[in-house]
Amino acid sequence: MSSLHVESIGSGAPLLLIHGWGMHGGVWEEVAQKLAADLRVHSVDLLGYGKSARIDLPPQEKMAIVPSPSPTIPRRERGMDSLNEIVELLATQFSEPLTVCGWSLGGQIALHWAAREPDKVRRLILVASTPCFAQRADWTCGMESDVLRQFAGDLEQNHAATLRRFIALQLRGSENERELQVRLRERLFSRGEPDMAALRAGLDILRDVDLRGELQDIKQPAMIIAGERDKLTPPAASRYMARTMPSAQLMEVEGAAHAPFLSHPEIFIEQIKSFLHE
Q: pLDDT digits over 190-230, tens only?
């Protein structure tokens, strides 16, 4: 039995949707149904999220799915180890070449997968994403490291409140902000609570991974969709990716924050269909 829960609808060329940190594949429900009119749409729950297998399994089973990084490994390497493990599991789950669409953390997963396996990831759609989530001395398009450290500390104290706070940050400034907050909060635990090990691994990736060096090698056609009002992954990060990736195009959605597929679904679906039928 597969360790990943995948919901597949429609027929046609395959499109995989990868959710962001703290969520699950159900976040795509409305757009997946509409895209399925033309495509075979797969919505995955990443390991430890939704209906997928938990990471805190018995030791022998845990080792067979995701080996836990040693605490002695440098932090930045732990983040990349977590990213590689997720990509390897997805590559095992999906054997045919496909288009991969990733939102936020899902975008970083999609980026790294596209760089590693260009024959598997034929086209790439990055939604409110970034090659480097945290600020660096030479990268001002990210979240302050102190804020991310605070998230990590808060997560250990009260993970549910921390996830709700993260939802509020994602939607801040968006059109229909309050309505969207209600919808996302209702959906947050609709498939059960995410595994703490998965949440920690996701924060490792967001805090420590820098994929800027991979961008120029990603030659697949890519569509980058940014929210004009996004505070978490600002449009400047999307513009940087569009300039650096050889075959990328950029769409900024006016009035959208970090979840343009929820706040402006018609524009989102139109852009994806246009991109995939080029």
A: 999 999 999 999 999 999 999 999 999 999 999 999 999 99
130 and 107 Cβ atoms separated by less than 8 Å: yes
In total, how many domains does the chain have?
1
We report the CATH number of the domain holding residue 11 as 3.40.50.1820
Whether the model pTM is above 0.90: yes
d(CA 86, CA 226): 24
Domain carrying residue 123: 5-276
Report how far residue 48's alpha carbon sits from residue 24's, in angstroms, rounded to the nearest whole number. 9
132 contacts 209 by C-beta, under 8 angstroms:
yes
CA distance 228 to 238: 10
- List residues with catalytic annotation: 104, 230, 258
CB 65 within 8 A of CB 89: yes
CA distance 117 to 33: 28
